[in-house]
């Protein structure tokens, strides 16, 4: 099994060799931490997309919150699977056994990513689809009078599946208020919304529109105290900090690999007993063990392989830090510490511009390095078009975090969003600042 998995996935060992041999061994020690990280230049050398030119400039990608770029190791692992090991699962010939092993190896990688076990990781099309699927399964056991608590700070992928359920089964929905000035949840209101009728708390670990990180453990304790299940949307969080379902003590959590340097595929964590007791719609002859029972139909094998490779690639940023899980944690901590001064500079420079309004918590609050803003008098779409002409790719709109944008009073034009990723440089941040400054001064 293990031998197969190493061969199939383009091999963690060979990727490890590439990291150790093919790349420079110098490491950047991040100020304030003991983490030895691969240098910025070394990290950037893994991303073919960073060679792209536009408007006479190298492209600076600030669109990570919508989807990050992909390191070569991820593409290679997917291609290797498709060209050398492609088959369907659970049959008695080598490529099928290799496929089983590859999927298992990726489950194990994702288990390290969530701090869970491999039986607790299910794959699916994306977070939205998995969440609809989970909500339907949970809903089969709910009845009129039960309540679900959602929040205004969430992406609608963590609202619509629950409101759909509420409509279908006559269940009450309560929504926790966002405080627009701080970009944080109103905790007093959260406490009031959780009642003995609450059956599910659906909450986000980090906001894809504002970058706010929410203390999901604290919220989960309140929900568990009344016997409710806790579902965490970790999509935005997953690109910026190590998910820790043990620390969060949540029942379910979901994310998507395309936000953390992987392909377009989603994954769901479910506590072992919770997954086992779900009343999932499934084909009679399909496996009923967890996590397979959550996975309807033939899976995206190459996407699963790519997701595992993305986790290994993240772990490889902090070499020599022990097993994969501690390397993942160190990589995220180190990357966060490295980009903190860049983000603080960006925040300060943008905040100083007279026609610019910036949203969300300040840089020293618990937050990701994703910023949203508007330039008064210039629709968000015009701002990003103008930036794109300079080779700076940023996103605009509501990012399906529609309620946040409403509460900020920006429904008409949406906002501009720029996110820092592991490949973002000081120079790129300066180009972004100069670009926005120029647009705001017109
Ligand atoms: C915070 C958050 N939740 C959920 C989603 C939906 O994820 P997916 O595209 O995998 O369905 C996104 C996508 O942008 C997101 O940022």
Describe this entry's structure for a reader.
The chain has 442 residues and is an alpha/beta fold. The chain contains 16 helices and 19 strands. It has helices at residues 2-8, 12-22, 40-44, 72-85, 94-114, 127-139, 160-169, 187-193, 216-225, 245-248, 272-277, 301-316, 324-351, 380-389, 402-407, 426-440; strands at 27-29, 36-38, 53-54, 57-58, 60-61, 121-124, 147-151, 172-176, 178-179, 184-185, 198-204, 229-233, 252-256, 266-270, 356-359, 370-375, 392-393, 395-397, 415-419. The chain has a seven-stranded mixed β-sheet with strand order 6-14-13-12-11-7-8, sandwiched between helices. The protein has a four-stranded antiparallel β-sheet with strand order 15-16-19-18, covered by helices on one side. Strand 1 (27-29) and strand 2 form a beta hairpin. Helix 1 crosses helix 5. The chain is globular, with a radius of gyration of 22 Å. Residues 1-33 have low confidence and may be disordered. Bound molecules: pyridoxal-5'-phosphate. Residues 126-128, 155, 157-158, 204, 208, 233, 235-236, 256, 266 line the site of pyridoxal-5'-phosphate. Pyridoxal-5'-phosphate (PLP) binds next to helix 6.
